[in-house]
Amino acid sequence: MNSPQRSLDARSPLVLEVHELGRRAGTMRQVDRTVPAPEGIGIEMVRVPQGSPIGLDLKLESVVEGVYVSGTAEVELEGECARCLVGIEDEMSLDLQELYFYSDKDAEEDAYFVVDERIDLEPVIRDAVVLDLPFTPLCREDCAGLCPTCGTNLNDDPEHDHGDRVDPRWGKLMDLVGETDEN
Ligand SMILES: [Zn+2]
Ligand SMILES: [Zn+2]
Fold it and tell me: How far apart are CA 62 and CA 68, in angstroms?
């Protein structure tokens, strides 16, 4: 038996009706539409802004086990550079390929299911975004980051330099180290 399924929120723009596929293997339907992003997709450093457009270009295919979804979802991203903390805006195209099983078919517990003749794209898009996101988002490959001493953005000020001035506290410590070496 499959685990109990929560019913899907039919009002969610990422929940699609599939009843017209009629469980006839080989039937196909194209979905080409733009829907607003739900909240909370992404990771701490990079997110899909809530309400931003998600461009769906999908093929829904009736197969023996369920409904096979394939195609792309274009999402917008916003976040912060992991090195210099400047705001980043980007776009990402997600390749989706997912089989939603009919509830009377045998499937892994973490499989997706057709529920009340609907499928929910949200968890699939959520997983695809997290998988595709860079572990450390950068504003550019060679981002120079922030000056560790004063926090200046080194991308804006490549010549930035504090000279050889040593913090007075470090100076004292170096004197001590020097003395021990001599003994
Ligand atoms: Zn940066
Ligand atoms: Zn500095």
Answer: 6
Return the ligand number nearest the Cα of 150. 2
Residue 124's domain spans which residues?
15-132
CB-CB contact of 89 with 78 (8 Å): yes
Residue 138 lies in a domain: no
Coil, helix or strand for 111? coil
78-87 pLDDT, tens digit each: 999 999 999 9
Query: pTM of the entire structure?
Result: 0.77
> Which whole-number Å values give the CA distances from 43 to 12, 87, 99, 129, in the listed order?
21, 15, 25, 9
Rounded to whole angstroms, the Cα distance separating 124 from 120 reads: 8
Residues 160 and 85 in one domain: no
Q: Which ligand is nearest to the CA of 88?
A: 1
Q: pLDDT digits over 15-63, tens only?
A: 999 988 888 888 999 999 999 999 989 988 899 999 999 999 999 999 9
Question: What spacing in Å lies between the alpha carbon of 137 and ligand 2's midpoint?
Answer: 23
